[in-house]
UniProtKB/TrEMBL annotation:
Domain Beta-lactamase hydrolase-like protein phosphatase-like, residue spans: 5-109
Listed GO MF terms: transferase activity
InterPro entries: BLH_phosphatase-like, FAD/NAD-bd_sf, FAD/NAD-binding_dom, Prot-tyrosine_phosphatase-like, Sulphide_quinone_reductase
Keyword Transferase: yes
Domain FAD/NAD(P)-binding: start-end pairs: 145-264
Name under which the protein is recorded: TIGR01244 family sulfur transferase
Organism: Gilvimarinus algae
Length: 555
């Protein structure tokens, strides 16, 4: 489809390639806007290639990617701002041109334009605005007392914790998903211990009693005005904001990975639908190379890539297959585990399973049909080269980041994570904003156990800040990583800020630096009910915190 004129200065089109940019310059275009996320389809030209081609001919290129049906007012306003700043003709493109036209139309509609006229204008180009405009209405602002963004482990736990202390306070959770997952269980799904269904429940069933649930997504924060914008077009004003949307798994950051996940021997326990495939591959592999990867930090549960490897190798050992299977661990980092006290026990299993350790190896591409993984290898001098590794089985842990609506907000630090005081979990600049879970920039491990410890601290500190009689609490960075080194034994790593060991049990009962059957029993039998029946219901078992200092409590 060629360029189609929508306004005197705006044209829209389907995906363009770098070879089209020179002709656009000759036609008088000064700006190009990409409304399509990179990696959306196989063979799609990346925006960076368009940008470089545009730069050579003096065209300004802008990246404003949106997902169909998920953009909101903020994206429409950014589109309008880009168009207003363009000195001449602008071409906006996506897969078909529909998203580009819709972004323009939504801004016009919210600015008071006639809906029928807009729909007619866009329909002449072959696009249907009906489903898009139905999501929006002229701006209305709804008031909320405590607004929690995210219905994962951290969001549900903090809402329940607040309710357990002050049942009369008004709390609203914003979460688009229909299902809630016990993600720590996916390691055991991939190891053939749990069924995947055991880790999933309907979101409605775990929303705490008395808490409102808005099934929508946040698209933008305006902390200066105490507002958030939702993907359904609504604006919510809050008195206190708790940010807990978790992080995102960037599968598309590894070339070719999305096209081969779930087939060609490529899997990951980081996804509900793929963990069963991990177990199927483990049972089916009789020989060859099994590769397990770990990307640069930070990631959710830094031990999970190793857990998958140890459980797989233990199964192959029990089936007398390990002598025919080469197991390799390819870690973008420089150490096996970040807290040194746990490394000796892990190294015993590395030797038992004859695991080939490869550090400073960052996975950048996967050729599924040929079963080849490509790594960028960095040496001690900082020099790097590419290395191709064949595989029969590949378990991938993808790169991870904060969600885009967090990264591009005033709440984020330079790396994109929510900027909090690491002790109180209060935002560093906005006193009525709090955050917990995987999205924060505190230097703790991103685990469910960390969220379990953080929830009562945020609840207590928030309530104290708004006048309730609660003693402010201090977060010590506690996190836990039960490292499943074999079926039936776990190295229970528990630590806080600076790698300080923070064991929950005395060493005579459970020495976390050694593999124990008691730790496995906790992981398999005790922690799931603690999660569903305690953590998500405001019953604070297995949590630890300390009173805040005077300086922390007055932040």
């Amino acid at each position: 489809m060629s360029e189609q004129q929508l306004t005197p200065t705006l044209w829209v089109s389907a995906q363009i390639g770098p070879d089209r940019v020179s002709a656009l310059s000759e036609q008088g275009f000064t700006d190009v806007i990409c409304n399509r996320p990179d990696g959306e389809a196989e063979g799609q030209p990346p925006f960076e290639a368009i940008r470089r081609a545009a730069e050579t001919v003096g065209i300004r290129a802008h990246y404003l990617p949106v997902v169909p049906g998920q953009f909101g007012r903020a994206e429409a306003a950014r589109m309008a701002a880009l168009l207003a700043s363009a000195p001449g003709k602008t071409l906006a493109y996506c897969r078909t041109g529909n998203r580009s036209a819709s972004l323009w139309a939504v801004d016009q509609w919210l600015g008071g334009a006639d809906k029928a006229g807009l729909m007619s204008q866009v329909q002449t180009l072959g696009f249907d605005l009906g489903p898009t405009l139905e999501r929006f209405s002229p701006t209305t602002t709804e008031q909320r007392d405590i607004l929690v963004v995210g219905g994962g482990a951290a969001g549900i736990a903090v809402a329940a914790s607040i309710k357990a202390r002050q049942s009369a306070v008004g709390i609203t959770i914003v979460e688009p998903a229909s299902n809630h997952f016990y993600q720590p269980g996916w390691t055991l799904v991939g190891g053939g211990v749990f069924s995947p269904e055991k880790t999933r429940r309907d979101m409605a069933s775990i929303i705490p009693p008395g808490v409102e649930w808005i099934q929508s997504a946040v698209t933008a924060f305006a902390p200066e005005d105490n507002r958030v914008t939702l993907s359904d077009g609504r604006t919510l004003q809050y008195q206190q904001l708790v940010v807990a949307p978790g992080l995102v798994l960037n599968w598309s950051a590894i070339e070719g990975l999305e096209d081969t996940l779930g087939k060609n021997g490529v899997t990951s326990n980081y996804r509900y639908d793929l963990a069963p495939y991990t177990w199927a591959l483990v049972k089916g592999l009789k020989g060859g190379r099994a590769v397990f990867t770990q990307p640069p930090m930070p990631i959710k549960c830094a031990g999970a890539p190793q857990k998958a490897m140890y459980l797989s190798a233990d199964y192959w050992l029990s089936e007398s297959l390990l002598s025919d299977i080469s197991v390799g661990f390819y870690n973008a980092g420089a150490v096996l585990f970040g807290v040194s006290e746990y490394v000796p026990a892990l190294m015993e299993y590395v030797r038992r399973y004859n695991i080939d350790l490869n550090f400073q190896h960052n996975l950048v591409a996967v050729d599924g049909p040929r079963q080849i993984a490509t790594f960028v290898v960095t040496n001690a001098e900082g020099e790097s080269h590419r290395e191709q590794v064949p595989f029969e089985m590949l378990h991938v842990c993808p790169p991870q980041s904060a969600p885009a609506f967090v990264r591009h907000s005033a709440l984020a630090d330079k790396a994109g994570w929510v900027d909090v005081n690491p002790a109180t979990l209060q935002h560093q600049r906005y006193g009525n904003v709090w955050a917990l879970g995987d999205v924060i920039n505190a230097p703790n491990a991103k685990t469910a156990a960390a969220a379990r410890a953080q929830a009562p601290i945020v609840a207590t500190n928030l309530l104290a800040a708004i006048g309730y009689h609660c003693e402010p609490r201090h977060y010590n960075g506690y996190g836990s990583c039960p490292l499943t080194v074999e079926r039936g034994k776990i190295v229970l790593a528990e630590f806080g800020y600076g790698g300080k060991l923070l064991p929950s049990f005395p060493p005579w009962l459970l020495d976390g630096t050694r593999p124990t059957r008691l730790a496995w029993w906790l992981k398999e039998r005790i922690l799931p009910p603690v999660y569903w029946q305690a953590m998500l219901k405001g019953r604070e078992w297995l949590t630890q915190s300390e009173p805040a200092t005077r300086e922390e409590s007055t932040h």
